[in-house]
Amino acid sequence: MEPIDINLLQQEIDERANKQVYVHLETTNGAYASHFNKDSYNVGAFIRNAKVQYERGKVVGAESTYRVGLKLEIGWIYAEGVNKYEINENGSLLMAGHDREGRLMVALQISETPFHY
Amino acid sequence: MSEHVVVIYPHPDDEAFGASGTITTFREKDIPVTYLCGTLGEMGRNMGNPTFATRETLPEIRKQELIKACEVLDVKLEMLGYRDKTLEFESREEVAKHLNSYLQEIKPSLVITHYPGYAVHPDHDAFGAAAIRAVEMMPEEERPAVWAQAISNDHLEVLGQPQVQNDVTSVFRKKFASILAHKSQADGMLSKVRNEEEDIELAAQTWLGRESFYIWDFE
Ligand SMILES: [Zn+2]
Protein backbone atom coordinates (compact mmCIF):
# COMPACT_ATOMS: atom_id res chain seq x y z
CA MET A 1 0.00 0.00 0.00
CA GLU A 2 1.09 3.59 -0.65
CA PRO A 3 0.85 6.67 1.55
CA ILE A 4 -2.25 8.62 0.62
CA ASP A 5 -2.11 11.15 -2.20
CA ILE A 6 -5.36 12.97 -1.57
CA ASN A 7 -5.99 13.98 -5.20
CA LEU A 8 -5.35 10.53 -6.61
CA LEU A 9 -7.44 8.88 -3.90
CA GLN A 10 -10.30 11.32 -4.51
CA GLN A 11 -10.28 10.35 -8.20
CA GLU A 12 -10.54 6.66 -7.28
CA ILE A 13 -13.45 7.36 -4.93
CA ASP A 14 -15.23 9.42 -7.61
CA GLU A 15 -14.82 6.64 -10.16
CA ARG A 16 -16.78 4.26 -7.96
CA ALA A 17 -19.65 6.65 -7.18
CA ASN A 18 -23.19 5.97 -8.42
CA LYS A 19 -22.44 2.31 -9.04
CA GLN A 20 -23.40 -0.78 -7.12
CA VAL A 21 -20.34 -1.58 -5.01
CA TYR A 22 -19.32 -3.94 -2.22
CA VAL A 23 -17.84 -2.43 0.92
CA HIS A 24 -15.60 -3.89 3.61
CA LEU A 25 -15.44 -1.64 6.68
CA GLU A 26 -13.53 -2.61 9.77
CA THR A 27 -11.99 -1.24 12.90
CA THR A 28 -10.21 -3.18 15.63
CA ASN A 29 -7.77 -2.91 18.48
CA GLY A 30 -7.23 -6.67 18.51
CA ALA A 31 -8.56 -9.58 20.49
CA TYR A 32 -5.74 -9.36 23.01
CA ALA A 33 -6.04 -5.69 24.05
CA SER A 34 -7.42 -6.36 27.51
CA HIS A 35 -5.26 -9.48 27.92
CA PHE A 36 -2.05 -7.44 27.65
CA ASN A 37 -3.43 -4.37 29.39
CA LYS A 38 -6.24 -4.84 31.86
CA ASP A 39 -7.18 -1.18 31.65
CA SER A 40 -8.02 -1.36 27.96
CA TYR A 41 -11.10 -2.71 26.26
CA ASN A 42 -11.53 -5.04 23.32
CA VAL A 43 -13.50 -3.17 20.69
CA GLY A 44 -13.96 -3.86 17.01
CA ALA A 45 -16.53 -4.03 14.27
CA PHE A 46 -16.57 -5.24 10.72
CA ILE A 47 -18.98 -5.50 7.85
CA ARG A 48 -17.99 -7.46 4.78
CA ASN A 49 -19.54 -7.22 1.36
CA ALA A 50 -22.20 -4.65 2.20
CA LYS A 51 -23.87 -3.97 -1.14
CA VAL A 52 -24.36 -0.21 -1.48
CA GLN A 53 -24.32 2.72 -3.85
CA TYR A 54 -22.95 6.12 -2.86
CA GLU A 55 -23.83 9.37 -4.55
CA ARG A 56 -20.80 11.23 -3.26
CA GLY A 57 -17.59 10.16 -1.57
CA LYS A 58 -14.93 12.41 -0.15
CA VAL A 59 -11.54 12.09 1.49
CA VAL A 60 -10.49 14.82 3.94
CA GLY A 61 -7.35 15.19 6.02
CA ALA A 62 -3.63 15.75 5.86
CA GLU A 63 -0.27 14.05 6.43
CA SER A 64 -0.85 10.80 8.26
CA THR A 65 -4.54 10.77 9.04
CA TYR A 66 -7.48 10.96 6.69
CA ARG A 67 -11.23 10.55 6.96
CA VAL A 68 -13.41 9.12 4.23
CA GLY A 69 -17.18 9.60 4.03
CA LEU A 70 -19.55 7.99 1.55
CA LYS A 71 -23.01 9.51 1.26
CA LEU A 72 -25.69 6.89 0.57
CA GLU A 73 -29.26 7.44 -0.45
CA ILE A 74 -30.47 7.00 3.12
CA GLY A 75 -27.30 6.89 5.23
CA TRP A 76 -23.55 7.18 5.50
CA ILE A 77 -20.37 5.14 5.61
CA TYR A 78 -17.47 6.69 7.52
CA ALA A 79 -13.91 5.74 8.37
CA GLU A 80 -11.32 7.73 10.31
CA GLY A 81 -7.59 7.12 10.50
CA VAL A 82 -6.79 5.77 7.06
CA ASN A 83 -3.26 6.56 5.92
CA LYS A 84 -2.49 4.11 3.08
CA TYR A 85 -4.26 2.96 -0.06
CA GLU A 86 -3.90 0.81 -3.13
CA ILE A 87 -5.81 -0.50 -6.11
CA ASN A 88 -5.42 -4.26 -6.05
CA GLU A 89 -5.31 -6.68 -8.98
CA ASN A 90 -9.12 -6.94 -8.97
CA GLY A 91 -9.43 -3.17 -9.32
CA SER A 92 -10.71 -2.84 -5.74
CA LEU A 93 -9.87 0.31 -3.80
CA LEU A 94 -8.29 -0.63 -0.46
CA MET A 95 -7.76 1.99 2.23
CA ALA A 96 -6.30 1.25 5.64
CA GLY A 97 -4.77 2.81 8.71
CA HIS A 98 -1.86 1.05 10.41
CA ASP A 99 -0.19 1.75 13.75
CA ARG A 100 3.59 2.12 14.22
CA GLU A 101 4.02 -1.65 14.45
CA GLY A 102 2.22 -2.18 11.14
CA ARG A 103 -0.98 -3.46 12.71
CA LEU A 104 -4.25 -2.66 11.03
CA MET A 105 -6.48 -0.28 13.00
CA VAL A 106 -9.08 0.62 10.39
CA ALA A 107 -9.93 -0.48 6.86
CA LEU A 108 -12.37 0.77 4.25
CA GLN A 109 -12.47 -1.09 0.95
CA ILE A 110 -14.67 -0.52 -2.09
CA SER A 111 -15.03 -3.07 -4.87
CA GLU A 112 -17.23 -3.54 -7.90
CA THR A 113 -17.09 -7.31 -7.34
CA PRO A 114 -17.62 -9.09 -3.99
CA PHE A 115 -14.57 -9.59 -1.77
CA HIS A 116 -13.34 -13.17 -1.45
CA TYR A 117 -13.03 -15.24 1.74
CA MET B 1 -4.58 -48.24 19.77
CA SER B 2 -1.63 -46.85 17.83
CA GLU B 3 -0.49 -43.36 18.76
CA HIS B 4 -1.56 -40.35 16.70
CA VAL B 5 -1.83 -36.78 17.94
CA VAL B 6 -4.44 -34.37 16.58
CA VAL B 7 -3.93 -30.67 17.25
CA ILE B 8 -7.08 -28.52 16.96
CA TYR B 9 -6.59 -24.74 16.97
CA PRO B 10 -8.37 -21.99 15.02
CA HIS B 11 -5.49 -19.87 13.69
CA PRO B 12 -2.33 -20.34 11.66
CA ASP B 13 0.41 -19.69 14.29
CA ASP B 14 -1.53 -21.04 17.31
CA GLU B 15 0.32 -24.33 16.75
CA ALA B 16 3.71 -22.61 16.51
CA PHE B 17 3.44 -20.38 19.57
CA GLY B 18 1.38 -22.85 21.61
CA ALA B 19 2.44 -26.42 20.93
CA SER B 20 5.28 -26.70 18.41
CA GLY B 21 7.75 -27.91 21.05
CA THR B 22 5.39 -30.63 22.20
CA ILE B 23 4.61 -31.52 18.58
CA THR B 24 8.35 -31.81 17.88
CA THR B 25 8.90 -34.21 20.76
CA PHE B 26 6.09 -36.41 19.42
CA ARG B 27 7.52 -36.31 15.88
CA GLU B 28 10.97 -37.24 17.22
CA LYS B 29 9.35 -40.42 18.57
CA ASP B 30 7.85 -40.97 15.11
CA ILE B 31 4.32 -40.41 16.38
CA PRO B 32 2.15 -38.95 13.58
CA VAL B 33 0.65 -35.51 14.21
CA THR B 34 -2.26 -33.95 12.29
CA TYR B 35 -3.14 -30.28 12.61
CA LEU B 36 -6.81 -29.34 12.09
CA CYS B 37 -6.55 -25.58 11.56
CA GLY B 38 -9.91 -23.81 11.71
CA THR B 39 -9.36 -20.58 9.80
CA LEU B 40 -6.74 -18.74 7.79
CA GLY B 41 -6.56 -15.91 10.32
CA GLU B 42 -8.21 -13.70 7.70
CA MET B 43 -8.89 -10.93 10.21
CA GLY B 44 -5.42 -10.77 11.74
CA ARG B 45 -4.21 -7.29 12.64
CA ASN B 46 -0.56 -7.94 11.91
CA MET B 47 0.28 -7.10 8.31
CA GLY B 48 4.02 -7.69 8.71
CA ASN B 49 6.39 -5.09 10.07
CA PRO B 50 7.08 -3.22 7.81
CA THR B 51 3.67 -4.03 6.33
CA PHE B 52 3.62 -6.33 3.31
CA ALA B 53 0.05 -7.67 3.48
CA THR B 54 -3.39 -6.15 3.00
CA ARG B 55 -6.71 -7.37 4.38
CA GLU B 56 -7.26 -9.03 1.00
CA THR B 57 -3.85 -10.67 0.55
CA LEU B 58 -3.49 -11.77 4.19
CA PRO B 59 -5.48 -15.05 3.89
CA GLU B 60 -3.34 -16.39 1.04
CA ILE B 61 -0.12 -15.23 2.73
CA ARG B 62 -1.08 -16.87 6.02
CA LYS B 63 -2.09 -20.04 4.20
CA GLN B 64 1.38 -20.29 2.67
CA GLU B 65 2.98 -19.53 6.06
CA LEU B 66 0.87 -22.26 7.65
CA ILE B 67 1.85 -24.81 5.00
CA LYS B 68 5.51 -23.91 5.57
CA ALA B 69 5.22 -24.15 9.36
CA CYS B 70 3.64 -27.61 9.02
CA GLU B 71 6.52 -28.67 6.76
CA VAL B 72 8.99 -27.44 9.39
CA LEU B 73 7.15 -29.44 12.06
CA ASP B 74 6.56 -32.40 9.73
CA VAL B 75 2.85 -32.63 10.51
CA LYS B 76 -0.14 -33.34 8.28
CA LEU B 77 -2.29 -30.26 7.76
CA GLU B 78 -6.05 -30.02 7.26
CA MET B 79 -7.54 -26.55 6.68
CA LEU B 80 -11.15 -26.51 7.82
CA GLY B 81 -12.31 -23.37 6.04
CA TYR B 82 -14.00 -21.38 8.78
CA ARG B 83 -13.61 -17.62 8.92
CA ASP B 84 -11.49 -15.86 11.51
CA LYS B 85 -13.44 -14.18 14.34
CA THR B 86 -16.71 -15.93 13.48
CA LEU B 87 -16.30 -19.35 15.13
CA GLU B 88 -18.28 -18.43 18.25
CA PHE B 89 -21.25 -17.59 16.04
CA GLU B 90 -21.30 -20.94 14.27
CA SER B 91 -23.37 -23.82 15.64
CA ARG B 92 -21.11 -25.55 18.19
CA GLU B 93 -22.83 -28.85 17.47
CA GLU B 94 -22.16 -28.56 13.72
CA VAL B 95 -18.53 -27.59 14.20
CA ALA B 96 -18.17 -30.47 16.67
CA LYS B 97 -19.64 -32.90 14.13
CA HIS B 98 -17.24 -31.61 11.50
CA LEU B 99 -14.28 -32.12 13.86
CA ASN B 100 -15.68 -35.48 14.93
CA SER B 101 -15.63 -36.70 11.31
CA TYR B 102 -11.83 -36.22 11.31
CA LEU B 103 -11.46 -37.92 14.69
CA GLN B 104 -13.51 -40.92 13.51
CA GLU B 105 -11.17 -41.24 10.56
CA ILE B 106 -7.86 -40.67 12.36
CA LYS B 107 -8.69 -42.38 15.68
CA PRO B 108 -6.15 -40.31 17.63
CA SER B 109 -4.69 -41.27 20.97
CA LEU B 110 -4.40 -37.61 22.01
CA VAL B 111 -6.15 -34.34 21.09
CA ILE B 112 -4.54 -30.98 21.88
CA THR B 113 -6.78 -27.91 21.86
CA HIS B 114 -7.56 -24.69 23.76
CA TYR B 115 -9.20 -24.70 27.19
CA PRO B 116 -12.65 -23.18 26.61
CA GLY B 117 -13.26 -20.09 28.71
CA TYR B 118 -9.56 -19.61 29.48
CA ALA B 119 -8.08 -19.12 26.03
CA VAL B 120 -8.55 -15.32 25.61
CA HIS B 121 -9.50 -15.17 21.91
CA PRO B 122 -13.20 -15.96 21.27
CA ASP B 123 -12.17 -18.27 18.40
CA HIS B 124 -9.88 -20.21 20.80
CA ASP B 125 -12.69 -20.62 23.33
CA ALA B 126 -15.27 -21.61 20.72
CA PHE B 127 -13.05 -24.04 18.81
CA GLY B 128 -11.74 -25.59 22.02
CA ALA B 129 -15.31 -26.16 23.21
CA ALA B 130 -16.25 -27.70 19.85
CA ALA B 131 -13.16 -29.93 19.91
CA ILE B 132 -14.00 -31.23 23.38
CA ARG B 133 -17.61 -31.79 22.30
CA ALA B 134 -16.29 -33.68 19.23
CA VAL B 135 -14.32 -36.03 21.50
CA GLU B 136 -17.33 -36.40 23.80
CA MET B 137 -19.39 -37.60 20.80
CA MET B 138 -17.14 -40.66 20.58
CA PRO B 139 -17.98 -43.82 22.53
CA GLU B 140 -16.20 -43.59 25.90
CA GLU B 141 -13.83 -46.50 25.23
CA GLU B 142 -12.63 -44.90 21.95
CA ARG B 143 -12.05 -41.40 23.29
CA PRO B 144 -8.54 -40.03 23.06
CA ALA B 145 -7.01 -38.09 25.94
CA VAL B 146 -7.52 -34.34 25.65
CA TRP B 147 -4.86 -31.78 26.61
CA ALA B 148 -6.43 -28.33 26.93
CA GLN B 149 -4.29 -25.21 26.80
CA ALA B 150 -5.22 -22.19 28.93
CA ILE B 151 -3.79 -18.75 28.16
CA SER B 152 -5.81 -16.30 30.25
CA ASN B 153 -4.04 -14.34 32.96
CA ASP B 154 -6.22 -15.93 35.66
CA HIS B 155 -5.92 -19.60 34.63
CA LEU B 156 -3.42 -20.67 37.31
CA GLU B 157 -5.46 -19.00 40.00
CA VAL B 158 -8.74 -20.59 38.89
CA LEU B 159 -7.68 -23.95 37.43
CA GLY B 160 -4.52 -24.62 39.43
CA GLN B 161 -1.32 -26.06 38.00
CA PRO B 162 -1.58 -27.74 34.59
CA GLN B 163 -0.92 -31.50 34.83
CA VAL B 164 1.25 -31.48 31.71
CA GLN B 165 4.19 -29.07 31.74
CA ASN B 166 6.58 -29.66 28.88
CA ASP B 167 10.00 -28.05 29.01
CA VAL B 168 10.66 -27.55 25.30
CA THR B 169 14.00 -25.75 25.51
CA SER B 170 15.83 -28.78 24.04
CA VAL B 171 13.75 -28.56 20.84
CA PHE B 172 13.57 -24.80 20.84
CA ARG B 173 15.33 -24.36 17.50
CA LYS B 174 12.47 -26.20 15.82
CA LYS B 175 9.88 -24.22 17.73
CA PHE B 176 11.55 -20.96 16.76
CA ALA B 177 11.72 -22.03 13.10
CA SER B 178 7.99 -22.81 13.09
CA ILE B 179 7.25 -19.39 14.59
CA LEU B 180 9.43 -17.66 11.98
CA ALA B 181 7.50 -19.49 9.23
CA HIS B 182 4.56 -17.27 10.22
CA LYS B 183 6.45 -14.18 9.12
CA SER B 184 3.47 -11.81 8.87
CA GLN B 185 2.57 -12.54 12.48
CA ALA B 186 6.00 -13.10 14.02
CA ASP B 187 7.50 -9.80 12.82
CA GLY B 188 5.46 -7.68 15.20
CA MET B 189 5.76 -9.91 18.24
CA LEU B 190 9.46 -10.52 17.82
CA SER B 191 10.26 -6.86 17.28
CA LYS B 192 8.66 -6.18 20.65
CA VAL B 193 11.15 -8.61 22.19
CA ARG B 194 13.96 -7.31 19.99
CA ASN B 195 13.58 -3.81 21.42
CA GLU B 196 14.18 -5.05 24.92
CA GLU B 197 16.63 -7.88 24.50
CA GLU B 198 20.00 -8.38 22.84
CA ASP B 199 19.62 -12.03 21.97
CA ILE B 200 16.19 -12.49 20.50
CA GLU B 201 16.37 -16.27 20.39
CA LEU B 202 17.37 -16.49 24.04
CA ALA B 203 14.63 -14.04 25.01
CA ALA B 204 12.02 -16.00 23.07
CA GLN B 205 13.26 -19.18 24.72
CA THR B 206 12.63 -17.89 28.23
CA TRP B 207 9.29 -16.55 27.11
CA LEU B 208 8.19 -19.63 25.12
CA GLY B 209 10.29 -22.41 26.63
CA ARG B 210 7.44 -24.21 28.35
CA GLU B 211 4.16 -25.59 26.99
CA SER B 212 1.48 -26.47 29.53
CA PHE B 213 -1.79 -28.32 29.23
CA TYR B 214 -4.62 -29.42 31.50
CA ILE B 215 -5.81 -32.99 31.10
CA TRP B 216 -9.52 -32.72 30.35
CA ASP B 217 -11.78 -34.59 32.72
CA PHE B 218 -14.94 -35.85 31.00
CA GLU B 219 -16.61 -36.79 34.29
ZN1 LIG C 1 -5.07 -17.85 17.87
Automatic annotation (TrEMBL), chain A:
SUPFAM superfamilies reported in the protein's UniProt record: Hypothetical protein YojF (SSF89442)
Superkingdom in the source lineage: Bacteria
Entry-linked InterPro entries: DUF1806, YojF_sf
Protein name in the entry: YojF family protein
Phylogenetic classification of the source organism: Bacteria, Bacillati, Bacillota, Bacilli, Bacillales
UniProtKB/TrEMBL annotation, chain B:
Xref: SUPFAM superfamilies: LmbE-like
Gene3D superfamilies named in the record: LmbE-like
InterPro entries linked to this entry: BshB2 (IPR023841), GlcNAc_PI_deacetylase-related (IPR003737), LmbE-like_dom_sf (IPR024078)
Transmembrane segments: none
Segments forming a coiled coil: none
Pfam families per record: PIG-L
MF GO annotations: hydrolase activity, acting on carbon-nitrogen (but not peptide) bonds, in linear amides
Cofactor(s) essential for the protein: Zn(2+)
Stated name of the protein: Bacillithiol biosynthesis deacetylase BshB2
Source species: Gracilibacillus oryzae
